Amino acid sequence: MASPLRVRLEHAARPFRSASRTARVLVTLGLLLTFLFALVSFVGPELHEYGGTQYRVEQADGSFEQLPRLAPPSAEHPLGTTRDRFDVLARVIDGGRLALGVVLFSTVIAMLIGVPLGLFAGYRGGKFDRAVVTVMDAVYVFPPLLLAIIVAFLLQAYLAPGVPSAAAAVGVVYIPQYFRVVRNHTLSVKQEPYVEAARSLGAKERTVIGRYVTFNVVQSVPVIFTLNAADAVLTLASLGFLGFGVQYPTPEWGYDISAAIQDITNGVWWTALWPGLAIVVLVAALTLVGEGLNDVINPLLRARGAAGRKLDDGPAAAAGGAALDAPRSTAGAAPQPDGGDPHPGRGDPHPGRGDPHPGGGS
Fold this sequence. Notes:
Elements: H1 4-18, H2 21-47, E1 56-58, E2 64-66, H3 88-124, H4 126-141, H5 144-155, H6 163-189, H7 193-200, H8 205-217, H9 221-242, H10 253-259, H11 261-265, H12 270-297, H13 299-306, H14 314-325
Antiparallel strand pairs: 1-2
């Protein structure tokens, strides 16, 4: 007899197994890239000899030797160095750790605020719902990057530039998305018969929301989470590029690309290439996870994938189908004289009957 834990795991994995092959490949590839990226970001500093803000090396006699300025990729510096004598590989690794931390905190903040507000606003309705919807619509009107800049500027008076302020600035942008999706699902779920039955039996509002509504409306939250995480990487990089991100010299991809603009005009390509490539890889990995989860969680897409591939009837069947669809050929058929019997070989359908008009002329 299977253990309860095994049964639950098999039940949880059932949507993934019944999804299409494309969805499973997308999720697997995206998770693999994200895991490798996280592994390099958190284990890389222990393996690489330079730090993201290190610009000199201590010698045996206690003196310091500065790193070369704008050195091309070499064995000592695989990705080269920057104008400020920082090792590019070290800054890419430390910037990845910062990006993953900000993305995780910002999306969690948006989810913890947007999901409960959407649940209670959609279930209760009334003035509370209208007030929250008005506020969320007002926030949703602002372009994401502009809103993040405004929040980052306002938080400078309360928080020092760093991960908390960057995560808060990015997280505020995505609160309306969680709210709108969860609220719309709650409006439809609360009219279901099982919710009406629970209310008629005297269940408390907290029990109805927690037991019967929540788990039926949060199915799309993981998809929003991964897609917002991908977008949060771009928003964080944009804030750093414009100078509203973390404080220099903290490694941050957007700021490094902004500082490398002058280097590109002088033929120094490695200071901007590798931070930009890191952004592309991480955003692509998170997007693959989100798109794959959308196919896995969506019942219609999952049912389409579970139906499997249509059987290929082969060339013979295709030829047979074409023969059925083609008009009937009259080649070889004997021509019928004018006024002849259209059904040769058939006798009189009414034998024994005479002429109904005997002697009648034409």
